[in-house]
Fold:
Amino acid sequence: MSKEMSREERLAAQLRANLKRRKVQARAMAGREGEASESPDLPKLDGEG
Structure:
């Protein structure tokens, strides 16, 4: 039974690590999309607000 628990613990740890990797990847992709669509660091033109 201890082998079953250690196997389950290993699988759970792998699932957690995979979830963290996927979250980081999703944030990175969302950040890249946000950079392309929004540019808050650009100066305003003379005619704008």
